[in-house]
Write a structure and sequence with these properties.
The protein has 351 residues and is an all-beta fold. It has one domain: Beta-galactosidase, Chain A, domain 5 (Distorted Sandwich). It contains one helix and 28 strands. The strands form seven sheets. Strands 5, 8, 9, 10, 11, 13, 14, 15, 18, 19, 20, 21 and 25 form a 13-stranded antiparallel β-sheet that branches. A four-stranded antiparallel β-sheet has the order 1-2-3-4, with no helix packed on it. The longest helix is centred in the first third of the chain and has 7 residues. It is globular and about 55 Å long. The two termini are 33 Å apart.
Amino acid sequence: MPEAPPPEQLAVVRSAELEVVALPFKGADIYAIVDRATGIDVLFKSPWGWRGPERLGAPADTMQHWIARYAGGWQQLVPHGGAPCEVAGVLRGYHGEAAIVAWQVVEHTADRIRMVTELMTAPLRLERTLTVSGAVLSVHDLISNLSDVPVPVTWVEHPGFGAPFIDGRCRIYAGARTVVNDADAPGTVLAPDALTAFPAGLAADGSELDLSWAPPPESRRAVFAALTDFDEGWYAITSPTAGFGIGVAWDPSVLPHAWFWQECHATAQYPWFSRAYVVAVEPANVLPGTGDVAGRRRGAPPVLAGGAEWVAELTFVRFASTSPVRRVLPDGTVDVEPANGPAGAEPGAHR
């Protein structure tokens, strides 16, 4: 079992339905989202688990620095995501600074926590507020430019889901119309640099894959692509084995894409050594990678004007149904297709 963070590193908020564990001193990560009815934590945990600063060696590069601190869960990647790059003469390390620095807790009640930090690699102040009500977790993220200088900012919400919630019976639904395969590292099965209509994905052999099914752990499959052209910002994953589903909703005018990552014991080299089983759908303001594909620009983040702010409201919801999902709304309502009769909504996701 991966080692868990010590209690003094944790900040917990809960309702009767959910327990949410945050790591204020490490990126304001959402480390765990536990369904209290079953005891299942839906978030992925890295094979090496928690590593405190005293147990971290000197990393050779920024990727090793970030990965060594990655215990799993849900991160905010700001001001950069992906491979390191230089902006205005400053190196922005792998997956950005926000997820590896300490944040300050400025408010903490039984069902709400608010955390803030300021970055060094970009003149940004970040604020993250987590509020739990019933089966809904509301995530309010605010990015403020403290300078009068326009700053390009990549923003990726980085939740990864793992076993026992995820297995080969899980189904993935989304409000996206298009899949964009990564150009350089599409994984073990996808063709590079291809566009298809979600949920179809173009395989390297020219066949069509159904990306709405999560691969089982024994599949030895890796996938990296992006979902885009969202009519509404949402996705859902249902788990017949666990007996419930989870959904995430957001405003696609702020985060118009979602990075789509699966690692199913596929990578035999660093960092996974065939030990990771994770499925991730990550709302983002930029397509991953570099270069254009079908007139779409990758890796070109929007610019946050001097003195300006960006706000994202994300809703995570646990719902009882494992029926096909039609949509997830920002208030936590989940529209599902029942076995018989007209489609029904599950307000608050716990009916």
